[in-house]
Structure formats: C-alpha cells, structure tokens
Amino acid sequence: MYESMKMSVEHVVETGKISEEYNTSDEVRQVFSQWSIDGFTRQNHPTVIQVLLDQNKDKDITGNCLPNLVYVSRQKSKTSPHHFKAGALNVLVRVSAAMTNAPVILTLDCDMYSNDPTTPLRALCYILDPEMQSNLGYVQFPQEYHGLNKSDIYACEHKRLFKVHPVGYDGLCGPNYVGTGCFFRRRALCGGPSTLILPEIDGLCPDSVVNKPLTAPSVLELAHHVAGCNYENQTKWGSKIGFRYGSLVEDYYTGYRMKCEGWRSIFCYPETAAFLGDVPLNLLDVLSQNKRWAIGLLEVAFSRYSTITFGVKSMGLFMGLGYSYYAFWAILTIPITTYCLLPQLALLNELSIFPKVSDPWFLLYMFLFLGAYGQDLLEFVVDGGTIQRWWSDQRMWIMRGLSCYAFGLTEFVVKSIGIPTEGFNVTSKIINDEESKRYEQGVFEFGVPSPLFVTLTMAAIINLLSFIIGLVHFIVDGGSNKEGLVMQLVLTGLIVMNCLPVYQAIALRSDKGKMHTKTTVTATLLASAVYVVASLFLK
C-alpha cells in the first residue's frame, strides 16, 4: 500500500496534475479539484479543508471508533503576510475550535512522531489536577531524536536546551515552549489566567460547545472563514491571542509571553521518549537553523517585551535572567571570536597576553578554565550524556560562535536599521543517501559553498598556523617570554583539536562532502588580511 501511494504521489508531482485514475469517488474528486484551478501555487491558493476521518462514522477493523482526522491547508496570498509557523498554528487553533473545540491542543513538528501511546495520559495527569489547573498553561516534553550518530557530531541533541535547563526552570515557573511535543490548554492561548481575552467570534471562545457534526455545512463554512489569509486583520490574533508574532522563534516568544501573563508550565521527562524526530544531516543546515534561532531570539531581546526589562518585571529576577540567557545567545559570538583569534594573533607576533606560569594569577586562570569545563562536563554526563558527545557539543559551541552567531548578530543589526535581509528558511530534513552514510560514519559535511563556512575556516587556518609557529618559537627561541606563551599555546591547541574536521575537509578528503575550493580560497585570503591588520596594531 505504501509503495503504491509513493508511486502515485511521485507521478502527480512529476506531471503537475492529478489524473482521473486517482479520483476514486466524488468526495476525492471534489477535494482534488481544488488543486486544479488556475493560479493554484504554494504561495497563492484558497483554503482547503477535508475531513478524512469522522469518529461518528469511521471505525477500525475491530469496530472501534477512529479519531477525527482533518486536513487543513490555509489560504495563501502573496499580498498578505502569513507569519510562517506561528500563523499556521493559529489557523489550526481557529479551525479546530470551529470543528470540535477540544480543550487540549498538542503541537508536534511534521518530522516527529509519537513514541509512547501513554503520553497523552501523562499530560492529562497535570492538566486535570485541580491544584494546578487554574494557572497551568502547558505541559512540555523534551525534544528527543532518533538516528543520532554515536558522537552526535553536530550536537543536535541540545541536551541543555531540551533537558538540563528545563529541569531547573521547573522549580520556578516551568520550562519554555520548544515548538513541539507540547500539550496546551486552549484557554491558555486566550489571555492570562485572570484576564480572559475573548476572540472576535463566539464560536472560537475556549468554552464554546460544538454540537454539530464535522461535515455540517455551517461548521465547514466557519472553518473556511477563519482560515482565510485576511481573517486576522484588525484582530488580536498573534498579539494577545494564540501563538505570538514578532519573532522567528515563535515557540520561545509564545512561551515567554504566556509566562509574563501569569501562566506556568510543567516539564514531563519520562524514561521512555514521548516523541522522536529527525535531525539535519549536514553542517550547513545545522548552522542555518541556529542562525535563524539567533536572529529570532535577538528580536525578542530588543523588543518592547525584552526579557531583561519586561521579563524580569513580569516573571521575577530568576525567570527573567533565565530567558535572557537564550535571548542574548548570539552575543556569545563576541567572546568566542575574541578567544579564537586574539591570543592566536598575539602568539604569531610573540606577544604574551596571559600571566606567566610562575605568576599567581596563572592559577586563577587555570582554575576558571578547568572549573568551567569540568562543571559543563559534569552536567552533561550526569544527565546521561557521553564524553564523546560532550566533546562534540563543545566543538559545535565554538563553530556556532564563529559562524551562525556572528552572521545572526550581523543580520539582526542590518535588519534593525532598515536594510532588507533574506526571509525565513525551513531546515531541510530530506535524507540524501551519501550524506546519511557520511553522517553515520561521523564525517562532517562541507560540500556546499557558504559564507557560514568562510569565517569558520578562516579561524581554523589562523589557529593552525599560530599553533605551529608558536610551538616552534617556544621550543627553539622562547627566551624570557617562554612562560608567558604557555596559556596561548594551550588555548590555540584546544581550538586546533576542535577544528580537526575543518582541516580534514580542506586537505584530506576527496568525497562530495569536502570543503569547496571557493570557500578555502576566500577563507585563506581573509585570514591573511586579518593577520596583516592585527600585526600592525599589535606591533
């Protein structure tokens, strides 16, 4: 059945039309006819709503009722903003309110699936608890993945973001919404616990009762109406009702605004993963996704609802600082880039910028350095991580700081002064056989030329040259300055070890995932320019 369906879909995509052989009934013909109208494209089409399963009449082979299943494709127009994922979620909230108005909503990304059928029961245990029902907005499950390779080379697990930190937030007002694996109370999307904000139509109110069949003409008419691309004009959707607009990270922003309104959340972390999803299999997709997050988080940080001002005032100091930690994520590019370039450039010019080994201040530097890494390793391992994955996480932290955080911060600043930038890009989860094989082997994917790789490769080249030349100077003619160069050599050597995949992609690989020549040449020229400029200043 699957192979037959796959062939049918591929044939339709290839030909661009749906032939009569697939129109097996009047119902199917009616649905498919909507895709056949002139001008129907992904960016411009009417609303399509189709009831695929109706629990009042559809049963499985054992005679049990099947749940309602409704396909929704909201109206799109090139002249109307659609607000990406947040806009799609708000349409689904309204359409579901018109058709069933169930009090609980589960949001799940399209690349994730249920791994435990008892998950809804776990969520309902909290949602129906009378002691917390008054201000509980949602129950968040950790975002977990299948298919991660042994060392998780791209650090896609995000253990701290999805597992470690939410446990701490649970002791305050609860974890943030991470975009998937979350059960919402419908009421929580309509204002604060004590300030109900009613939608503009009575049928969309959270306490409204739908007593008509899914296929009733009046129900379908309302559903089509609220899925229109201009429906939200002059309404509070996206500002005070539903999922919030104003940031590329609509999940973070929505959860944050709900906390500011007085809602709390619960982190449910069962032994068996509730949901499992796919991870990107190449470095460019990973960095592009993190760049989008960085821009979206900065949009919140510097908005009228800034976490450091509005957030602290609304949620308290600890929750406000907790949200600020992520909101200002991209600014980490400044210290990361500084530590990845300044000591190395100084080492090339035999200039010491750290205390000598015999200096008492050296012990403080080493204590802070080893203490920070030790604490980080302990948190990672205690939560079930491995040392190998922790090393990957540290490596990607440096790579993100040198690439996507830097580009994200730059793009946000450029966008803030009115210069247009590129739009929203969905992270690809399409599986390429060659990429998949290299990923399973733990080999990085650099095959596509990208500006994100240029700064990363430039830093890798500077660190390698700095380490080699610095080590030669240290051994041959270190002189009286020998002790002062130790910390710079250690730091440079650590970054060189983290950049080993870059060196392999430049010089040791011949597969399609190797570094593109254009990227290597550009990075080399940039590294040379940086060295010349730095030498003039340092001397």
From TrEMBL:
Keyword terms of this UniProt record: Cell wall biogenesis/degradation, Glycosyltransferase, Membrane, Transferase, Transmembrane, Transmembrane helix
GO biological process, one term: cellulose biosynthetic process
GO CC annotation: endomembrane system; membrane
Residues noted as binding Mn(2+) in the record, renumbered to the chain: 85, 109
Compartmental location: Endomembrane system
Annotated membrane topology: Multi-pass membrane protein
TM spans (from-to): 323-342, 362-382, 452-476, 488-508, 520-538
UniProt KW Methyltransferase keyword: no
SUPFAM superfamilies on file: Nucleotide-diphospho-sugar transferases (SSF53448)
Protein name per UniProt: Cellulose synthase-like protein G3
Phylogenetic lineage: Eukaryota, Viridiplantae, Streptophyta, Embryophyta, Tracheophyta
Source organism, top-level taxon: Eukaryota
GO molecular function: cellulose synthase (UDP-forming) activity
Pfam family, one: Cellulose_synt
